[in-house]
Amino acid sequence: MTETNTERAVVICTKDRGVFFGYVTGAVGRSKVKLRAGRNCIYWPAECRGVVGLAAKGPLQGSKVGPAADMELFGITAVLDCSDDATALWEAEPWA
Asked: Looking at the predicted structure, is the pLDDT value of residue 94 above 50?
């Protein structure tokens, strides 16, 4: 990922298999990241086509996404930039 001071929407995976959506500013390190308005995805259906699908398409119908809170995550294994459409679905906070 390139370093930028612009806030961007991302999906982050952790070494403990956590999957989170939120907003980051600047570069993301492998050890720790601060998320603004972070949300945890507890479940997503097969139609999402995995974690990359959560960033590309968003949490589709049947997903379970928790409420937003500012947070720090540790043990970062992946950072995926979200599409605008995916961001809108994450912000809808679906909980089937």
From this structure: yes
